[in-house]
Amino acid sequence: MNNIVPLIFSFIALRLLAPMIFASDSSDYYVSVSCNATLYPDLCFKSLSKYAASIKTEPKALANTALTLAFETTRLTLSELRKIGGGGESVGECIEVVGDSVYNLARSVRRMEGEETGSGLAAQMSDVETWVSAALTDDDTCMEDFCRRCGARTRAAVREMVFKVARLASIALTFIDRYASG
Ligand SMILES: *[C@@H]1O[C@H](CO)[C@@H](O)[C@H](O)[C@H]1NC(C)=O
Fold first, then answer.
1. Mind giving me the DSSP string for 56-81?
2. Coiled-coil ranges per the record (predicted)?
3. Does the Cβ of 41 fall within 6 Å of ligand 1?
4. 64, exposed or middle or buried, with CB in 10 Å at 0-12, 13-18, 19+?
5. Domain, as residue range, for 133
6. How far is the CA of 179 from the centre of ligand 1 (A)?
7. C-beta of 59 in contact with ligand 1 (< 6 A)
């Protein structure tokens, strides 16, 4: 009899825990499969797997989370660039283009918040796709043509930061396109 009690408890515990374990497994799997379809699967999984539980297996949540992350990271990058720039002209251009990128991502995040349907949804997604593409173009421009007079180390640091936000925007765009066409 005594041996059976712990057994029953572990059986009950398993019944209670299993759905949570499997739920988190399947959302990790969903994020992993989705990320593998992007151009940057490693960065994608590294940045999004921690939100797997709230993404579940929902394309809209995936697109929203990736977009919000791109926006937040770009905003932080802008303030980093401002620190590095220190008022000098060399980083100035880059600050301007990344600033445009922040603006475009911010309005994309706001536009995604509406629960639109039918033709409203098509227009909504078309706006978001346009603006995120613009943000991506801004980042690209900045990488090609920035910081000409910066030292090698600053140039490398800026390049790495801008590269990352461009990649996050690209990942977000992949998921937004997929949600829009699904
Ligand atoms: C995604 O790709 C990685 C690396 O190739 C692989 O380890 C992982 O199993 C893939 N994920 C899925 C769910 O197929």
1. TT-HHHHHHHHHHHHHHHHHHHHHHH
2. none
3. yes
4. buried
5. 4-181
6. 21
7. no
The pLDDT tens digits of the residues spanning 32-66 come to 999 999 999 999 999 999 999 999 999 999 999 99
Q: Is the CB of 33 under 6 A from ligand 1?
A: yes
Query: Angle of helix 152-181 relative to helix 41-48, nearest 10 degrees?
Result: 80
Residue nearest to atom 14 of ligand 1 (CA): 33
The rounded Å distance from CA 136 to ligand 1 centre is 26
Q: Is 36 in the pocket of ligand 1 (CB under 6 A)?
A: yes
| Separation of alpha carbons 168 and 181, rounded Å | 20
How many domains is the chain partitioned into structurally? 1
Ligand 1 in contact with 49 (CB < 6 A)? no
- Provide the CATH number for the domain around residue 122: 1.20.140.40
- Half-sphere exposure of 143 toward its Cβ, with a 13 Å CA cutoff? 18
> pLDDT tens across 117-147, in order?
777 888 999 999 999 999 888 877 777 666 6
